[in-house]
Write the structure tokens for this entry.
Amino acid sequence: RRSVGDPRIMYPEAAFRNILIEGGFDVFFTINAECLDAEGTLIRELVRQKKGIVIWYVDDPLNPFAPWNVAAKLRGAPADYEGLFFFCIDVGFVEKLKSLGFTNVFYLPHAASLEWARSVQPVSRPPTALVTHVSHLDYENLARFEEMLKLFPEPFQGKVRDFVHTHHENLSRSWEDFRRDADLPDVEPVDAARIEHAANRIATIRTKIRLVNLIEKMGINVYGFDDWRNVLQNPDSYKCHAPYYHGLRAVYQSSFITL
């Protein structure tokens, strides 16, 4: 499944495990290490069979709270296994994985099909707003992330708040750049990952809210979970949950610009 609540089962788990154990393939490809178990049983079997393993990370592989965390998913796999390859949509992810000893790590951003773009026909109906915004806000977890700040040692509590304010006002600055310029002390890697995750999540949520509120004055259609209703100045700006499996093109065509 793509998620626990997803009604579509991509492939039966038992059949998947049998095919993997039988080994009738050359390369195992997965996005965000999906289908690899937390116990490391499947990754060890792939290494034992000397299979090629290709993992495309579209999210932060070191996120300590995520089920795709590389330390959990690749438990039992040697970092220097020559058949293990990582591709990441963010250059920052590449450096993080290399710092853990993984060698075959490459930058691979999302692709675009120029042929498809040339074939797109003009929209027959006028857009209903200047801008369409599609995203998961995660507003219900904002208070949890802010509560986490109290668990961090000083000066990190104050500096994280400074970072959130800077990111919120300037709509820029990465945590890595901010931390380097702020000359913050070193902490244990696990703590550093938690601090970075909390800082980025708070900054992202607050920045999304600010941007959408600014654009509301010009007209915006917002698609995502209904927690957007809590922060919109105009309730009519919220439309519905984004129809990822069908109708997404109609969503994109409902405005001149899609964010």
Observations:
- The mean pLDDT is 83.
- The longest helix spans residues 189-216.
- The chain has ten helices and eight strands.
- Residues 152 and 195 are 7 Å apart (CA to CA).
